[in-house]
Structures are given as C-alpha cells and as structure tokens.
TrEMBL record:
The organism of origin for this protein: Aliidiomarina taiwanensis
Enzyme Commission number, as recorded: 1.1.1.41
Name of the molecule in the record: Isocitrate dehydrogenase
This protein's UniProt keywords: Oxidoreductase
Domain Isopropylmalate dehydrogenase-like: from-to ranges: 4-330
UniProt entry tagged with the keyword Electron transport: no
Listed InterPro entries: IsoCit/isopropylmalate_DH_CS, IsoPropMal-DH-like_dom
GO molecular function, one term: NAD binding
Keyword Nucleotide-binding: no
Length: 335
C-alpha cells in the first residue's frame, strides 16, 4: 500500500541527511510518496514565515511527517518551531529511544532505553513569559493538567506493554515542585496500579541523571514532564554516542512527526560531513508507526551492520567518509 507523507528537509545539514533517509526508504521498497514543504530558517528566507500556512495544511492532510532539524532565529518575536508544531497538532508524546550500536564512540554497551516525554505542557507551554522593562527580572509559568499527566503516563505504559518492556520509571521533582511535579507523581501512582504486570518505580530527576550515568542498564522506559524529558533524553543520547544516534517521534491522536533530534549544524552544512543516522532511525520509527515493521527491521539491520563494520564511517563514528558514502554503504546492504 502506498502512503503519502510530508517531508520537511529543514535547515543546515537537514536537506542532506533527509535526502539520505528518503533514498533508503525508496531502496527498501516502502512505497511512500512525498510532499516536500518548508519550515524554519529556510522557510523564513523563502516565504517570510517560519511556519507557512501551506506547510501546516500539508502536515494536517498527510498526518505523517519526516523532519530534518530546524533553526529558530535567536531573539524576541520568534517562537520555537518545534514547540509550535507540537502544540498545533496536539503531539503530546515525545518518544526518544536510544540503543547501543557497536562501532560508535559511545562509552557504554547494551543500552536500550526509551524516554517518553510529555510534549505540550509544563515549562515549554509558553505561558506567562514576561521580562520587566528594565530587564532586571523575568518569569514564566509551568502548568500541567491531570488529563495531560494521565495521557502521557498511559501512553508510556501502553508502549511498555506493547514492546514487552519490564519497567517504567516516573521521573519527577515532587519534593520541591510540590504542585506541578506533585500532581504528575500522584497521577503516576494511580496509573501504575492499572499495570500490575509492569514494574513501576519513581525517581527524583537529579537522582535519575546521576544513576543514568552510573548504571544506565538499570533503566528501561522513563516517563516524565516536558522540561525534565528534554534534558534526560539528551543525556540518554550521550550514552549511545550522541545526538547523531538518537531519533525522536512526536505523536498525537491523529498526527505524528518523526525527526532528527540534533541541531542543524550550520558550520558543516553543504560539506557532505553529517552522519544521517538520527533521521534514518527516525524513519525506522515512522515505518513501525504506519505498520511497515518488516521494512523498518530491514533498514535497521542495514544501518546497524554499516555502523558496526565501520564501512564508510563518518567522522563522529571514527571514520573519514561523508554523508553520501555512508548512505551508499547502507543502500548497498539493502540490495
């Protein structure tokens, strides 16, 4: 069955690494058709808008998107495009898996952790952000809801059940943030009781970060609020070699956007240096989401073999090759 998806090439290295993923999807025979649209700095330069109406309409129509990294200009008046997309389409669940690959520069082996982050509430909601006229003070509001907590916690436990995971860790700061984090923890305890077959634990966020560095093999699925999830998921990426090895999915009731989670790296844009693994892994997540598990597994196997063999490795993987050579190595394994 042919599916039409939206593709946002993004900024900086985005177009090169997204093109690599598209070549691999086509080589694997996924039968996808693509609508390309602009967002980010490239859209601003072309259309005077970071997130044009046409882009939103195409995303809404196709419901599934693959996205490269986006650049939001620094300074007042510019909101995060990623946050805007998540809020506009109700993409409440951010799913960031990290898995060890032999052949990377990682300091750990046998890591297999999924961070499930609430994506629309908390400190990133944009509520109450003010700065005094003289610049002497600033404030922002963090707001979470019982419904939002229930939704993300059920999502995490259902994911754990579906994938045969053994443990879910609810990460919080309820000892200090007694209102917002306290509500999240209270709801976490309620939801955990609905899944007696899955081990549940609760952990303060700073202790979580320490223990992730010391004993990451003790973690399975982490679920937490927006700000904590952003930090923890990047920490987890560091366990497996960095953001170049970490994909992300933003999932809502009706739409989903799959993305490379690293930045646009303008310093190496157009130089054929970037490792496309993050967006390739995001494409694997996408295929699993739309019911193409077999093709997802084939691509993952080809990518894993390429990295583990060191064949045409990029600089961050210890090699001297570029994006196109690395991509071709994966394509060769799909032949």
């Amino acid at each position: 069955m042919t599916s039409r998806i939206t593709v946002i090439p993004g900024d900086g290295i985005g177009p090169d690494i997204v093109d690599a993923a598209i070549q691999i999807l086509d080589k694997a025979g996924c039968g996808l058709e693509y609508d390309y649209v602009d967002a980010g700095l490239s859209a601003f330069e072309k259309h005077g808008e970071l997130l044009p109406d046409h882009t939103l309409a195409t995303l809404d129509k196709n419901r599934i998107a693959l996205k490269g990294p986006l650049t939001t200009p620094m300074g007042g008046g510019f909101s995060s495009i990623n946050v805007s997309l998540r809020q506009h389409f109700g993409l409440f669940a951010n799913v960031r898996p990290v898995v060890s690959f032999q052949g990377t520069q990682a300091r750990y082996q046998d890591i297999d952790i999924i961070t499930v982050r609430e994506n629309t509430e908390g400190m990133y909601s944009g509520l109450g952000q003010t700065t005094s006229r003289d610049g002497s003070e600033a404030e922002a509001m963090s707001k979470v809801t019982r419904q939002g907590c229930q939704r993300i916690l059920h999502f995490a436990y259902e994911l754990a059940r579906r994938e045969g995971r053994k443990k879910v860790t609810a990460v919080h700061k309820a000892n200090i943030l007694k209102s917002t984090s306290g509500l999240f923890l209270a709801v976490a305890r309620e939801v955990a009781a609905e899944y007696p077959e899955i081990e549940s634990e609760e952990m303060i966020v700073d202790a979580t970060c320490m223990k992730l560095v010391m004993n990451p093999e003790n973690f399975d699925v982490l679920v937490t609020t927006n700000l904590f999830g952003d930090i923890i998921s990047d920490l987890c990426a560091g366990l497996v070699g960095g953001l170049g090895m970490a994909p992300g999915a933003n999932i809502g009731a009706n739409h989903a956007i799959f993305e490379a989670v690293h930045g646009s790296a303008p310093d190496i844009a157009g130089k054929n240096l970037a490792n496309p693994s993050s967006v390739i892994l995001a494409a694997v997540q996408m295929l699993e989401h739309i019911g193409q598990a077999d093709n997802a597994a084939r691509i993952l196997t080809a990518l894993r073999d390429t990295i583990e063999s060191g064949d045409r490795a990029t600089a961050d993987l210890g090699g001297q090759h570029g994006t196109t050579d690395f991509t071709q190595a994966v394509l060769d394994r799909l032949s």
